[in-house]
Amino acid sequence: MSALLRQIPTNIPQDIRKIRIENSHLTELPRGSFENVSALEYLWLNFNNITVMHIKSLEYLLALKELRLQGNKLSSVPWTAFQDTPALKILDLKHNRLDVLPEHALRYLPNLTYLDLSSNQLTIISRDVFYSWPVYQRSQRAEGQIEAISNAVLALHDNPWICDCRLRGFVQFIKSVGPPIILMNAYLTCSSPKFRAGKFFHEVELNSCMKPLTSALDTNLTVPVGLNVTLTCFVQASPSPTVWWTYALKLLRAFNVSTEPISEETVRSELLIPAARPADAGNYTCTAANFLGNTSAAITLRVGVPWASTTPPGWAPIAPAEPGAHVEVRIAKQTVYGITLEWFAVAAAAAEPGDTWYTLLVGRYDAAQKDTIYIGPGVNTYSVTDLLPATKYEVCVAVRNQAPRKGQCVVFVTGSDVSQLEQREKLIHIIVIVCAMVLAVPAGMYACTTEARPGCLARCPGTCLRRRRGGQAQAAGSKESTLDSLPAGSEDGLCRPEGGRGSRRPPAREEPGKTRPPHRNSADLY
After folding, report:
1. Which residue among 88, 159, 318, 374 has the highest number of C-beta atoms inside a 10 angstrom radius?
2. In order of start, what are the domains of the chain with their CATH numbers?
3. CB contact set of 172 (below 8 Å; sequence gap of 6+)
4. Is the peptide bond before 193 cis (omega within 30 degrees of 0)?
């Protein structure tokens, strides 16, 4: 008891007849766990953490009479393992996690007198599980005979039974069972569906299972623009079916669909379409399915002209417009394949702007149906991508449950082709390069003059002296100068008076009788 055992000990004496290991840390029963104790008759392994039981874990236990596995974590049991325990009389599996009982489960327990499956997770059981039990078969053969048959106690209470058509056979078995099979607690109760929860088995009458039958009161609807539309279908099925709606082969979101039972075998499913627009017209399909199959019903919706004559053409609110409930839309960014929208909403006085939902309608300008996107509170931008080039589109933003008004839609045309943008970018690159080359010419001239300055400063005194002596003898009449004459031209401009460094020499006055040197064109430098 309460030992830190993690596996069955291997040194158990061979003549042991009873083993009891409880409140320990056993997690599995591997193959041949008790092959050395073939004389074992009583095995108690209650309140451990056993989750796995090998199909040969009870091998060589031909004398085993009692097996108790209460309070473990078994979700399934290898029922064929009991072929190795033909003498078993007591099997206790309560307070585990068993959720399935296969039809052959009791076939290999012919001498059982006590079976406890209470407090598990069993929901559906076939009556064939007990019809194939040898104990039950013997009791049926012995009816009207004097032959004595041992009683068998059966405990099945405290399980979450689902009382629908799938449990019909088992409920009939419980109502008719009698000695030698004795129920420990004959008041088994239903856990679901809701309208049967808490009822005893003997209080319910379950019908046979039925494939879903789907129908709609009105399969053709015509509504004005802007009206809230509710599409309704009825499904008769047993057990309760799963219902979903599709439109243009797309599964519609569940938050616009409500399904509830209106009787034992009938459910009603409703699809809400807020602020119906022409884009919402089309065929809507209601589909129901259970384990027997599925059926569907189609409803055709047509959206007509606006129901308010004073409303501008093409727009209609679903209700009288609330003051201030308006959305201003603009394009924040546009690319070849999409745009980014930005909107600013002034909500009605009864609603906070941060709690406002929006409806975004996107599609080609001439399309009758547009995609609907619901935007949650606090979001005021959305990017629409994967659009076709050179196509005219329309995007509308409106407060949810209202149709877009005039001025809340944007019409735009996507770019014609990516190649045009690439050509435009190349042209821009060429223009930038040419401009850079033109601007680089004065910079190159400045660099050349800067490199020539040190040599000029060294020759500057002699040059200036020669200019004073020789006057204007060095006439610049030669037109054969090349780019090599550029430093010489620069040196002339760097001459300074001896008295002041960095000060400019004042312009010399013209003396009478001296001829002015001819003007030297800047082109002669090249």
Report:
1. 88
2. 18-203 (3.80.10.10), 210-304 (2.60.40.10), 326-348+355-417 (2.60.40.10)
3. 127
4. yes
